Amino acid sequence: MTYDQNTGTGYIRISSKLEAIADSWPLDGHVDGIGVVLDLDSQRRVLGIELLGMPGHGPKDMVAAIASGAIAEASATEGFELPALGSNPDIIVQPSHRTTLVEAN
Length: 105
Fold this sequence. Notes:
Layout: E1 2-4, E2 9-13, E3 23-26, E4 34-40, E5 46-53, H1 59-67, H2 70-77, E6 94-95
Parallel strand pairs: 1-6
Antiparallel strand pairs: 1-2, 2-5, 3-4, 4-5
Protein name: DUF2283 domain-containing protein
InterPro entries: DUF2283 (IPR019270)
Pfam families: DUF2283 (PF10049)
């Protein structure tokens, strides 16, 4: 999982293949105070999971939601199975090296 401290967002890449994202599927509501959006390929397989931090919820809350199975469960209710997130997976949080562009006035 990568975490961008500037934007408060996390990302979990599920697929090891570099495939184009064809669609994004937001899960209804929030999972333990975290917005969740599934990135899908053209076959509607989950490539990655965007975790949108809400005020007061950071990477520890995101990891807790994953470890508790809440994200896998919410995904399953929408018809997306995430076996990679089952069985309390090992998660390493890495800082994002993505450059954030800021427009100067």
